[in-house]
């Protein structure tokens, strides 16, 4: 990697840079973007780990801020060459209100776009989601589809609605004139379910398994495939596409790309067992004990309890009618669009991704090992 100071001239901003994906993007940029001179990390909650990054050749600027506040966003964007907008409220459990989800995911994205236009930042990468496509509320399978596969995308839930709206705004902004007269170049990356070091839901399943004496109970048929992608590869795709937005603006601008790698096609639970199994948990088959109607009943009961208890406390279990429907509907991608358009190849093999994730689970406090 070139380490000359002359080539270090670019300023990048990563919103949501202290989140699960954001932290990997930040670390990947520092390792793999030799032209970086300053990296601005913008987040509502800054992580203490940022401090250790401040000793390298790149100036790391931590900015505590809120994407819903246009002036805070504009101040952070001013002077940046590239913005990677990964901040978002990821909530399919009913923790936040639909209004808050909309404010953060849609208004926050509007603020980022307007800040780019006003301050003259030309390159914007948006972290979208597979959820802008599906699974839809009708439960139609999306089997190894690509970016052009026809699919009836029907959203009701606030999270996919907000991601779909925000993605549309980003793509429509491609070509807008920014301050200085040049066009804005935008694109959107759509990860499927991300896994890897720092994944909160994996942590939750692991702890649940420990509480249940080292067991998890199968709820989803093994035949339902759920798309997953390793966080390091998602981060790498962001870094690559951000780099190529300038060189291949005409090709990449206004495009969407699914995030993919060599992770195998499996059900959500079987996939999790690739990591939780080697850490001492086992998946107990319960199809006869827990038929789908019973799970749906439990999910509806959870939703009802959430609503009843809301004035007193926040009850937000993993299982609700929406999460059950997503987990229970096949949604997998098979595409090479990112490879064709900007030369993406996964940086981490499946073996690497698996090993790294297992190492992280093992290192967690309360490990069964
Ligand atoms: N986790 C997953 O499986 C997937 C995530 N995504 C998208 O990837 C992005 C990152 O998600 P994760 O890292 O999983 O979530 P995360 O919750 O770990 O990270 C989101 C970050 O955004 C920050 N944030 C939230 N509200 C903010 C605000 N108002 N102002 C500034 N920062 C704010 C949070 O503090 C957090 O650090 C999100 O846009 C999400 O929609 C897309 C597909 C799958
Ligand atoms: C029925 C339960 C019994 O074990 C399993 C419940 C699992 C769910 C909590 C997850 C199943 C599918 C996940 C979602 C999916 O990976 C797509 C996503 C994309 C995003 O952009 C955000 C996260 C998520 C909605 C993800 C959330 C957790 C699941 C619903």
Automatic annotation (TrEMBL):
Q: Which GO terms describe its biological process?
A: steroid biosynthetic process
What main location does UniProt list?
Answer: endoplasmic reticulum
Q: Enumerate the catalysed reactions.
A: 7alpha,25-dihydroxycholesterol + NAD(+) = 7alpha,25-dihydroxy-4-cholesten-3-one + NADH + H(+); 7alpha-hydroxycholesterol + NAD(+) = 7alpha-hydroxycholest-4-en-3-one + NADH + H(+); (25R)-cholest-5-en-3beta,7alpha,26-triol + NAD(+) = (25R)-7alpha,26-dihydroxycholest-4-en-3-one + NADH + H(+); (24S)-7alpha-dihydroxycholesterol + NAD(+) = (24S)-7alpha,24-dihydroxycholest-4-en-3-one + NADH + H(+)
This protein's membrane topology, according to the annotation, is:
Multi-pass membrane protein
Record family assignment: Belongs to the 3-beta-HSD family.
The free-text function statement in the UniProt record for this protein reads:
The 3-beta-HSD enzymatic system plays a crucial role in the biosynthesis of all classes of hormonal steroids. HSD VII is active against four 7-alpha-hydroxylated sterols. Does not metabolize several different C(19/21) steroids as substrates. Involved in bile acid synthesis. Plays a key role in cell positioning and movement in lymphoid tissues by mediating degradation of 7-alpha,25-dihydroxycholesterol (7-alpha,25-OHC): 7-alpha,25-OHC acts as a ligand for the G protein-coupled receptor GPR183/EBI2, a chemotactic receptor for a number of lymphoid cells.
Protein name in UniProt:
3 beta-hydroxysteroid dehydrogenase type 7
In its UniProt entry, the species of origin is given as Leptonychotes weddellii (Weddell seal)
Phylogenetic classification of the source organism: Eukaryota, Metazoa, Chordata, Craniata, Vertebrata
Gene encoding this polypeptide? HSD3B7
